[in-house]
Amino acid sequence: MSVFNISFAGAGRVAGALCRKLHEKGYKIDLIVSENESSCRSLASETGASWSTEPVFPDSSGLIIVAVPDHRLSTVLSGIRAAGTPAVVHTAGSFGLDVFPAAMRHKGVLYPLQTFSRDRSISFVDLPFFIEASDSHTLELIRSVA
Length: 146
Description:
alpha/beta; 7-stranded mixed β-sheet; two-stranded parallel ribbon; 4 helices; 9 strands; 27% helix; globular
């Protein structure tokens, strides 16, 4: 496993499942950002992360995973402010790299082929992920997470 910290934009079903599994696998979760303060606080508490309702990410995050509803994706991506140049990936299967603002250097897609339900435990063993990346650095990060 490569060593880098991960932050999340979103605290719903997909973000929650990925965040919990990555935390369980030893990744440090830096920050969870969501408009839903209750979900955000709860997920942050479970994973030892900080939380915020503002999409301002620390320079310690090497990867930001955006797991929000498809209709919010473009707005959330456009609102991200991050120190440094983290890789930013989204989890939406219906969008590619063209949804990202042009100024984002490292961007990608990490789409799990799975329906996520609140009351169902997901097995990540043999779970297929579709991935796409703008560059080799981002591709390496996505592959290590997947």
